[in-house]
Each structure stands twice: as C-alpha cells, then as structure tokens.
Amino acid sequence: MASPPSRLYSFSKSRIYPQSSGVTTDDVLREPKSTQNRKLSQKRKTLTFQFSMGGHLSPWPTYTSGQTILQNRKPCSDDSWKQVGSSQQYPLSTAKPRYLEQLENYLRKELLLLELGKDSTQELRLQPYREIFEFFIEDFKTYKPLLSSIKNAYEVMLAHQREKIRALEPLKAKLVTLNEDCNERIMAMRAEERYEISMLKKEKMNLLKLIDKKNEEKISLQSEVSKLRKNLAEEYLRYLSERDARKILIGDLNELRYQREDMSLAQSPGVWGEDPVKLTLALKMTRQDLTRTQMELNTMKANFGDVVPRRDFEMQEKTNKDLQEQLDSLRADYEEVRKEHDLLLQLHMSTLKERDQFFSELQEIQRTSTPRPNWTKCEDVVAGGPERWQMLAADKNSDQLVDVLLEEIGEGLLREKDFFPGLGYGEAIPTFLRFDGPVENKKPSKKEVVHILKDAWKERLAQEQKEKFPDFFFNFLEHRFGPSDAIAWAYTIFENIKLFRTNDIMSQFYAVLMGKRMESVYINQKETVAQLQKEMINADSQNEGLLSMEQFSTILKSIFPLKKEEQIQELMEAGGWHPNSSNADLFNYRVLFMENEEGQSDPFVHKLWEQYVNEKDEYLHELKQELGLELHSEVTLPRMRRALMNIDPSLDKQTLNTYLSQAFQLPISELPEEGSEEEEGTKIWLRLALEQLQMADVKRIGPRDTESTS
C-alpha cells in the first residue's frame, strides 16, 4: 500500500489536515471537544483507507502469532497456544506489517517536522501520538471501550495538570519578586554592616592614637616630676647650707660689732672723765655677767659637747638609712642563698641517691632487657618510605612510635577486610552497631573519615542536642548515606576512629561516642580556640595576619589568667617563639589554627589541649587530697561541696551545682538543699565520682587563697 499522497497534506503547523481547509493544530486545540473529535474521525477514515488494502487492515501473518508472539507470552498462557506454536514450523524472522510500518513512518515524519519548527511546544508534540492512538481505537473495535477510557483518563489528567500549572504561574512570578526583594534587603544589610565595621575600625584607630598620646603625656609628666624632685632636693640642700652660713655670718657680725664698741669706748676721751664709782659698779656688773655667761657656756659645753650640727646629723642619718637598707637587702639575699644552698645540698644528696639507684637499675636493665629498637628499620616497611616515616616519627618517644606503628599496621589490615562481623542486638552493644550478619567495609581514606566527622559535629552544634549522641550519629549517617548504607558506614567509621588514636578529631569523637567524655568538653575547647583566634584578629589592626611576640604573650595572659608563666612560655614556644628571638619579632598567627587534610592540628592547638587535660588532672588530684579519702570510700554531698569550695573559692553556685550534679549523677533540679538531712544521706563512691568529673568539662574558675596571697 502506498503512503499518503503529499498533495493531500501539509506537514507544517497544519499537521495532517487537508491544505484546502487551512486549519492548524493550534486552531484545533482551541476548538470545542466535539469539533475536534469530528475532524479527527474524518482524518482517521482517510488514513485508514490509505493504510489498508481495499479498505481493510493488513492482517498480521498467521504463523507469527503462533511463533514470534508466543515466545514472548507469560508462562501462564493457554496450553492450546503452546500446542499450536509447537506443531507449526515457520521461519524465525518475519516481515513487519505494512500498516505498522506506515504508522511508524508517519509518526517519525510528524515528529521531525515538529523538531524543525521553531515554535513547537510539548502540547504539539503530543498531537501525533493522539492521532495514532485514535487510529488504534477506531480500528480495534473489541478494545475500543478500554482504549477510549485510557485515553480519556490521560486527557483529564493532562487538563488537570495544565490548570495547576496555569494557577502556579502567578505564584512563580511572586516568588521571583520576593526573592529579588530579599536579595536587595540582604545586600543593603551587608552594606550597612560594612559601613558600621569601617566606622568602628576608624573609631578604634582614633582611640588607639588617643591612648598613645596619653601615654606619651604620662611619660613626659613623670620625667618632669622626677626632674622637679631632683631640683627640689638640690634647693633644699642649698638652703640648708645658706642657713648655716647665715648663722655663722650673724655671729661674726655680732663679734665685730662688740669689738667696734670696745674700740670706740677705749678711744673715746669722755670715758676717763666719768665717775669712778659708776665705772666700778659697771665693772662689777660686767664681771657678774661674765661669770654668769661663763657658767652658762660651761653648762652648754657640758650638755651639748657631743652634739653635732643638724646638717651633719641629717647627712649621717641619710647615710645610715641607706646602709641599713643595704644591710637588710644583703641579709635577705644571704637568707635566700643559704636556703638555696641547703636545698641544693638536699637535692645533691637526693640526686646522688637517685644516681646510685638509677645506676643499679641500669645495670639490672642492661643485664635483663633487650636493646633499644632501631626505629629506622621501619622506613622501608611503612607506606611512603623514609620521608613519611620521618614525618610520622618527628618529636615522638618510643611509646608514641609504637602507637604510630600499630596504626600503620592496623590501617593495612583494615584495608584488607571486605566485611565486618555484626555484633548482634545485645544491650551492651551501642545502638548504632546493633546488627546481625556481615557488614560491608566501605574502605574510606582518613581524609574522608575526618570530613564526615567534621560535618557530623557541624550538624550536632546546629541542632538543639535533644537526642543522645549515638542516636544522633546513626540518624546523621542515615540522612547522608541512606538507610541501606547507614549501618555499613557506622561500622566502618567506628573501626577507623577506634584505630587512629593519635588523630585529635578521631580520638575525641570516639571518646564522646563511647560515653568516655561529654560533648561540652569538645564544644568548650572549640570555643576557647575561636575566642583566642578572635582576640588575635582584633589585635591585628592592619589585618596582615602578623603579630609581635609581645602581643601574643599579652593575649595569652588575658585569656588564660590562671596559667603559670611556664605554661604561657610553652604555648609561645609551640607557636614559634624561641628564647633567642626578640619580643618585637613578627609571626603569622593564622598558621596556628590550620589543620591538615587528615585533621591533625598545629602543635599550638595540641599544646592547648594537653595543658587542659593536665590542669583537669591536677584539679581532681587536689580535690582528692582535700577530701582525704581512699578511692574505695564513700563521700557525702556536703563534704564534696566543701572540698570544691576550698580548692576553688571562686566557684559560683551554678557551676558548683553543675559539678555536683555530674559527680553524683543527679539532675540539678533534684539536688538536695544545702544543710538538709537528705543532703547528708546522698553518698557515692569516691572513685565513681572522680570518673564522672573526669568525663565532664571541669576546670578551675579562680585561684586558691594561698595562690592569691602569694
């Protein structure tokens, strides 16, 4: 049968409608449903007439239904069909019906024309399929009701979806507008924040300049005050000398006046002409005055013969005071030297004893023990060669090297495992490991495990932390990898963090996951590091990432006021300071907070964590000594409260109740009131209480009384 004549149809927007009618597909879609059905029926009759021979459908070959079709039938098909298929022998390859080929060619041409069209839509692409389906509905009379119901159901659903899309279009436009408004508001807020930050920085710089100016004024005033004091002392000494010279001058002037009067009396001619009686009386009175004066002079010499001048006395007193101060200082230095000498003697004696003891132990060890291992032999065994081994073994003792070597061996064995044995559903098994049967080993790298753990911490800190940490961990894995792979990833990550104990992130996550440490320990440590980094950024006014060692030391002392000078020096050495370096030397503080791909922190952050652990151990050791009990003894709640206040008087009530709640495993709301009978009856084993406090974030709040007074 020949294909439809091209002169009867226009393969453009008009589809298969006759050219003379001028009807397009868009026009048909806008027409009523009855009109569309009538035109499609006319078109179907035309095509049916052209696609069939003599007005009838080309039948499928008889032998095809017996062989080719039966080969694709289900096992539950009729036995009679199987018998027919087995009794007749026909060729395996048969020609496709002409009617089917013409329909396929027609559909292919229609789709090709739609693809060439510029304004073709999804609705137009469905039209050829509708027409082919209409041909089938009309030609297969037996299945016409079923096929019509199927077509109507799809048409109804398509119409419903079109209505929904048309209803959602305004919402989409509104959403786009709302998104633009939100973006504009965000940009405005960011611009406002940047402006405020710039203004605050300018204000900060102005205040720093003002502080520097005030400090310069203070230094100048202090130098001026010291200069004035020196001038005052010089003027005081000058006035003292002038006063003494004035007294001497007055005495000399009086003596000269008396001598002048005597000479004037001796030279005056009128004296010899006076009455001798008067002269005798005057002489007698003068002699009496001389005798009285002589007696007073003798008395003065007797009383004040050993008296020195005030100026000499003050000078001697000052010299004596200086000498006395020097003597007291020398006596104090002597006492300190004597005590140090006694301590050194004791230390020398104890050192001698320890030397003899160590020498005997060394001889015993040399006699009984094996030689020290040669760790360089591991260079050819560890993956990565000598360079990686030197990096792993840097600044580690033999015990730490054993841990590193065990991790390398364990990592190789862990890579070889394809499955882990399930631990079952026992109560002692953690919830995230409860599974029976083999579990697949995902074999991730250390970098991937550390990345997963960091994401888990981020999600944990973002939520309210209502569920327990093991349950959260398993839910996190289900959300990330799906329920089917969650248990496999749980076993894989658990085996990795249990193996790599030297990795900070893995070891801390393992301790929190197994209940050996509380989450607050990790959170507070991260907050401390963040606060330290923030203070360094604030001190970096130029935002160059550089600080001087003096600024670094000041920041450490301000954030950690309870740390000793030796601890501050350890942190500075971990940050890159050396005894030979100057305080003015600059260093890049940003590298202190960096981590490598495997989650290993800088030595500075590691030293912070090490000091935190040591300070907690010392704090709990002081608590045990203050209680004065053995580990297997019971301690009451009032005694624990008094001991905590004695070793740490700065504890506030809320922190104290938190420590007691952790030690006695009671909620804060259920703690007995202080001084009640119920409080006296609350007891716990001391060993258990110290273990509970070791798990929590316990640290000293303030200095002890002895430390503050010293």
Name the poorly predicted regions.
1-31, 44-92
Q: What's the SSE pattern?
A: HHHHHHHHHHHEEHHHHHEHHEHEHHHEHH
In total, the number of strands is 6
Distance between the termini: 116 Å
Net shape: elongated
Q: Helical region count?
A: 24
For the largest beta-sheet, the strand count, sense and barrel status come to: 2 strands, antiparallel
Q: How large is the share of residues in beta strands?
A: under 5%
Q: What structural class do you assign from the helix and strand content?
A: mainly alpha
Q: Give average pLDDT, whole number.
A: 77
Strand order of the largest sheet: 1-2
Radius of gyration of CA atoms, rounded to a whole number: 53 Å
* Proportion in helices: 55-70%
